[in-house]
Amino acid sequence: MNTDSTTHPTAWHAVADLVRHLGSRAVFGLPGDDMDLLGALEDADTRVVLCRDQRNALFMATGHALASGGLGVCAVGKGPALTNTLTGLLEARSAAAPVLLVAGGTGLDRVGTGAFQELDQLGAVRPLVKWAARVDDPARLVPTLNKAVTVAVNGTPGPVYVEIPDHIAAQPVLRSGPWRRAAAQRLDPDPDVLAEAFDLITAARRPVLLVGGGARHRNTGRAVEEFAARLGAAMFTTASGRGTVDEDHPLFCGVSGLYTVAPADRLWQEADLVLALGSRLEETAAFGWPEPDRLPVIQVVSAEDAIATERPGVCVLGDVRRAVDAWSRMLGTGTAGGPWPARVAEVRAGLAGRAAERARRAALSAGEDGGVSVARVLSALDAAVPGDRILVQENGLQDMWSYFHPHWSCGSTGGSVVPSEQTPLGFGAAAAVGVALAAPGRPVVSVAGDGAFNLFRTELPTLADAGAAVLYVVLDNGGYGWLQTNLDRVSGGGSRFSFTADRLTGNEGLAASFGLGYWRVDNPEDMDHVFRSAWKHCEAGTSAVVEVRVSLSDTPPGMAGPAGDFPLREDG
């Protein structure tokens, strides 16, 4: 008989007890008038990050979940507090990040009366979460929270929502047994499907291995790299899969799709099979691939909602690591040789040479415009910050440089957190706080455009209070560079509208107000010294901001010009 029975004095005390069970290092949010959650966590080890904006709270919880591999937790009030989280929920769902959002709600006795901040909150959040529930009976809170956690971490992970309305918030809650297991269940793929896929694998002569975000935290012991070596497969990641594999590996050729440049793009045209591990094959990941009927795909994903059926091939439902281990056993020992691995080695050498030439041209162009090239920024950052750093990125005009290997490499020990296909502006800057708290002891760097950083600036006091030491690199092109380049494409540069302007940002004064370090770089010769100084500041435990003047003309590799959502690709 289970004797683990506890009566929590309020519903929010039960939530606090669940947080302790989860082992969460941090809870993010902005409570409403009900402070019971903070009261219940007053003496706990869990850090509570009180944000200024609920959207950023969701971003931080998402970053924490992606970096830790566990559940991110966010708590907010009701009404507009809840609607402020919707962009964050959209991103968490798209990023497959397991996040538990707990919010207040209008009491049952006042629903439909025009009560203060009354809203159909379930209707608002349901399109953006895996599962949502409102608890109108305190006896239902514990089972509801148990289900929410289970749904969030299993299958394709994602955000879940639990609403605690006013009429039960202060009532006692009985938990008659222990909290349920909070870890994901890793399911074995069907042996018959594995065998069907293995026939395609052994028949392939020019395979490409694509590692997606669904393989995060599943590549212990470098199993994926060993599998690639046995196949002799070219190895790419999606943007969200970076940091999963060793980017110094001799078979690694960069990021797929939108972020693949010559000569690595030729491998996709020459390949005869793709093994996609933990990727939903979104548009950016498959951008520039051959026509669907020319390139079959074996896709390994954890749940049926992630299946992509546009190409011929096989879908394997189950855990990425277990599929890789099974195929490795079938392959046996040894490393593949032959013309394809040699071709991959040739491409890697070509990537390095082309990257050096692109960086040289970018430096000349940026210098003519009075800025610093982003390739030079990344080089100085690489030299100043230890190799096990986690780079948290945005997805704007200039910060996209860091998506292109080898202009930026995660190496063998580095990590990466990027926005999903939704790419909400400001996600990376805010998520970096959650990443830093999820990975204490590891360096965390955020690279953001000035437009994205401006959306985050309201959280600078939150950053100071949280004790998260993040190095923020702000690429200042005067505003929204991607929008400006698209406007210039339409107007020819003569528009009365503008998304950029040469003005003071005010970041120096803000950083000083909250005890953060600040440096400004306008001359490339100052770059190395500034980054070394800024990183020493972060090592001492305080965040720092380095603002770098960059030029709108410093477009990322492979980009011949803007064309709406996606750039025109350069030839060769």
From TrEMBL:
Sequence ranges assigned to domain Thiamine pyrophosphate enzyme TPP-binding in this UniProt record: 418-547
Thiamine pyrophosphate enzyme central domain location: 194-326
Residue ranges annotated for the Thiamine pyrophosphate enzyme N-terminal TPP-binding domain, each copy included: 12-122
Keyword field: Thiamine pyrophosphate
Superkingdom of origin: Bacteria
Cofactor requirement: thiamine diphosphate
Pfam family, one: TPP_enzyme_N
Family: Belongs to the TPP enzyme family.
Protein name as catalogued: Thiamine pyrophosphate-binding protein
Source species of the chain: Streptomyces composti
